[in-house]
TrEMBL record:
GO terms for molecular function: L-serine ammonia-lyase activity; pyridoxal phosphate binding; threonine deaminase activity. Pfam families: PALP. Pathway: Carbohydrate biosynthesis; gluconeogenesis. It comes from the Eukaryota. Residues 3-326 form the Tryptophan synthase beta chain-like PALP domain. This is L-serine ammonia-lyase. It is found in: Cytoplasm. InterPro entries: Ser/Thr_Dehydratase, Ser/Thr_deHydtase_PyrdxlP-BS, TrpB-like_PALP, TrpB-like_PALP_sf. Its EC number is 4.3.1.17. It comes from Tilletiaria anomala (strain ATCC 24038 / CBS 436.72 / UBC 951). It is an enzyme of class 4 (lyase). It catalyses: L-serine = pyruvate + NH4(+).
Length: 341
C-alpha cells in the first residue's frame, strides 16, 4: 500500500551547508507520514494471518499520524477501523480520521490511557470473533519495523542515480531522522545493516527538549522514562522510547556493525525556525516533530562539524540524507506562528 517516495536534492540546504543535502519525502505517503509504511504492513500481515471468516477490525491508539496511517490503510483494504485519541486531539485531526472512515473514540488526557482503551476494545472483539481484530501499536512491533525499513533500499538506489551525489559509491555519509517512540529509527537502522556496503552512514536521531525520551535513555544507558512531555512537538512525545530502538542503536556502533550513531536534542524554537524556512525554501509544510530533523541543515555551522567529524572522508562534500517524515499536525497558522517567533 505504501508508495516509493522521492529522494530530492536540496539546492538551498546544500548551498547553505556546503554539503550535498538530499530529502527523502516520506510526507508524501498516502496518510501524510512515514508511519503508513509500517502500519499498512502490520495490518496487511495480520489480516493475511487471521483465521476469522469475517473482515477484521483495525484498532489503533493515536491522536495523530499513527491513527491516520491505520485509518487510511484500513479504508484502502476495505476494513473497519476504530482509533482511540486523547481529548486534547485537534478537531481537524478528528475530522481527517473520520474522513478516512474511522470511528473515533475520544477519552483520556494522554496516549497511555487511550492505548488501554484500544487494547480493551481489541480484546472485546476477540471474545466475540477470534482472530477478528488487529491492534496497531504506534511505534513497536517487528512487522512495523520491517515496513519502515523499506525506505532504506530506496534511498541507496535513488542516491546512486543522483548527479549531485559525491564519492565512487554515491552512498549516504550522514542519515538524519527524527525520533519519538523509536519506530522510524528502528526501521532505518534495520534497513541500513541489511545493505551490502563497504561502509555505513553516521545515523543521527533528533528530538526536541521536553520530548527527548530516546536521548535520555540512550545517553544514560538505562531504559528510563520522562515524567512529562513539555515540548510542543507532541508527535514525538513518547514518555518511554521502545527498547528495540535503543538496542538497535547500541548494536549499530559495534565493531561488527561498523556504524556511528549520535543523538541530537534541539529546542522547539530551532525546530520551528527550520519548519518555517523549509516551507519557504521547498513549498512544503511539516509538523514540528519532523522539522526537528531539518535543524542540522538549517543550523549547519553550529551542528554539522561535530557530526561530520566522525566521518573518515574529508576530501569531498558529504552526502547527507534527511528523512522528511511528514506529519499531519500542522497548518498554515502554525507556519505563520513559527515565522513570527
Amino acid at each position: 500500500l505504501y508508495i516509493r517516495t522521492p529522494l530530492v536534492y536540496s539546492a538551498p540546504l546544500s548551498q547553505k551547508s556546503g554539503h550535498n543535502i538530499f530529502l527523502k519525502l516520506e510526507a508524501l505517503q498516502p496518510s501524510g507520514s512515514f508511519k503508513f509504511r509500517g502500519i499498512s504492513r502490520v495490518i496487511q500481515t495480520q489480516a493475511s494471518r487471521s483465521s476469522s471468516t469475517t473482515p477484521i477490525h483495525v484498532i489503533s491508539s493515536s491522536g495523530g499520524n499513527a491513527g491516520l496511517a491505520a485509518a487510511t490503510a484500513a479504508r484502502a483494504l476495505g476494513l473497519s477501523c476504530t482509533v482511540f485519541v486523547p481529548v486534547s486531539t485537534e478537531d481537524y485531526i478528528v475530522e481527517l480520521l473520520k474522513a478516512e472512515g474511522a470511528e473515533v473514540v475520544q477519552g483520556g488526557a494522554a496516549w497511555d490511557i487511550c492505548d488501554d482503551g484500544a487494547r480493551r476494545k481489541a480484546a472485546e472483539v476477540e471474545t466475540v470473533t477470534p482472530g477478528g481484530s488487529v491492534y496497531v501499536h504506534p511505534f513497536e512491533g517487528e512487522d512495523l519495523i520491517r515496513g519502515h525499513s523499506t525506505m532504506v533500499p530506496e534511498i541507496y538506489e535513488q542516491l546512486k542515480g543522483m548527479e549531485e551525489a559525491s564519492g565512487d559509491a554515491k552512498a549516504p555519509d550522514l542519515l538524519v531522522c527524527s525520533v519519538g517512540g523509536g519506530g522510524l529509527l528502528a526501521g532505518v537502522l534495520t534497513g541500513i545493516v541489511e545493505q551490502d556496503t563497504a561502509s555505513r552512514p553516521h545515523v543521527v536521531a533528533v528530538e526536541c527538549f521536553g520530548a527527548d525520551s530516546f536521548a535520555a535513555a540512550h545517553n544514560s544507558g538505562k531504559h528510563i522514562a520522562l515524567l512529562a512531555i513539555t515540548s510542543k512537538a507532541t508527535s514525538m512525545g513518547a514518555l518511554k522510547a521502545s527498547a528495540k530502538s535503543l538496542a538497535l542503536a547500541r548494536s549499530y556502533t559495534t565493531a561488527e556493525a561498523g556504524g556511528a550513531f549520535s543523538t541530537l536534542t534541539v529546542p522547539d524554537s530551532a525546530a520551528a525556525f527550520a519548519g518555517w524556512q523549509f516551507a519557504r525554501d521547498h513549498r512544503f509544510i511539516v509538523e514540528l516533530a519532523c522539522a526537528a530533523s531539518l535543524t542540522p541543515a538549517y543550523f549547519s555551522e553550529q551542528v554539522l562539524p561535530a557530526l561530520l567529524a566522525k566521518q573518515p572522508n574529508t576530501q569531498r562534500k558529504s552526502n547527507i540524507v534527511i528523512v522528511v517524515c511528514g506529519g499531519s499536525k500542522v497548518n498554515a497558522a502554525d507556519i505563520e506562528q513559527w515565522r513570527r517567533e
